[in-house]
Amino acid sequence: MIDVRGLDVVFGKGADEVRAVRDVSFRVPEGATFGLVGESGSGKSTVLRALSGLNHDWTGQVVIAGQAQTPKRDKAFYKLVQMVFQDPYGSLHPRHTVDRILMEPLSIHGFGDAERRIEQVLGEVGLGPSFRFRYPHQLSGGQRQRVAVARALILEPRILLLDEPTSALDVSVQAEVLNLLQRLKQERGLTYILVSHDLSVVAHMCDELAVMNNGAVVEELSVERLKSHAPEHPYTRQLMVASLGYDRAAIDRFEDFGVEG
Ligand code: ADP
Ligand code: MG
């Protein structure tokens, strides 16, 4: 479903140049959930932004649903691929009701039966009709993220790119939203890329994962191997120690294993 070869993203020029993504390659079969993990700043969001069409400044090959992608995408692309961001407060317009937030993609893409689609998608994400005319500030964090998921699904895409979708939520609410995403994936036959800095989230959700450090993929492995504590790369093992033990001191001792320069 997704085939990425030699993806590079560079920000800035000269002394300010940041090679945020370096020669990243991976494939995601249809119906799979692929994890992208690494500490903050390792380039995970930049990969997703390139795939989703938000960043136009990349080089490499990106094939999605059999079609080679150019940096600029047409409207039809967004019926295939949608993104969900970490902070639903930032990504939902504060002065628009849930109804208007969900209506917007439908009008842009000229969908007719808006009424039915809005009610249906709200039900699917576990929000009743009473939520339809509320504003984001009248919702809890978990409810806001459900609205963000509803907005991503309303055009019936086949792929969701999930950028730390539960990192801003309380732990108890995180599990609810992750379970919702699992259920929606099964019901709709979706393909996911899930970005997280938390290996326990990835172990719960994914089949296969790539570990990023300093812009590069240092290791790709199955969740089985992760769970049997068999990652080979020292960076992955560092990440595991930090994730399992919630050990801030371990993260502070992290070494970089990415390419220099
Ligand atoms: P992650 O999502 O893994 O935390 P990001 O993809 O956000 O990492 O960032 C990777 C690197 O690219 C970081 O060094 C970040 O500062 C840099 N970066 C990201 N976006 C921009 C931008 N728009 N301009 C300049 N540098 C950026
Ligand atoms: Mg990020």
Set down the secondary structure blueprint.
Layout: E1 2-11, E2 18-28, E3 33-37, H1 44-52, E4 58-64, E5 67-68, E6 81-84, H2 88-91, H3 98-108, H4 114-124, H5 141-153, E7 159-163, H6 171-188, E8 191-196, H7 199-205, E9 208-213, E10 216-222, H8 223-227, H9 234-245, H10 248-252
Parallel strand pairs: 3-8, 3-9, 6-7, 7-8
Antiparallel strand pairs: 1-2, 1-4, 4-5, 9-10
Describe the structure.
With 261 residues, the protein is an alpha/beta fold. It has a single domain, classed as Rossmann fold (3-Layer(aba) Sandwich), CATH 3.40.50. It has 10 helices and 10 strands. The strands form 2 sheets. It has a 6-stranded mixed beta sheet, sandwiched between helices. Strands 2-1-4-5 form a 4-stranded antiparallel beta sheet, covered by helices on one side. Strand 1 and strand 2 form a beta hairpin. Helix 4 packs across helix 5. The longest helix has 18 residues. The chain is globular, with a radius of gyration of 19 Å. The mean pLDDT is 91. The structure holds adenosine-5'-diphosphate and magnesium ion. Adenosine-5'-diphosphate (ADP) binds next to strand 2 and helix 1.
Could you provide a short overview of the structure?
The chain has 261 residues and is of the alpha/beta class.
Number of strands: 10
- What integer is the average pLDDT? 91
CATH class: Alpha Beta
Bound molecules: adenosine-5'-diphosphate, magnesium ion
List the helices and strands in order.
EEEHEEEHHHHEHEHEEHHH
Low-confidence spans: pLDDT under 50, at least 5 residues? none
CATH architecture: 3-Layer(aba) Sandwich
Q: What is the CATH homologous superfamily assignment? A: P-loop containing nucleotide triphosphate hydrolases
Q: How are strands sequenced across the largest beta sheet? A: 6-7-8-3-9-10
Largest sheet: 6 strands, mixed
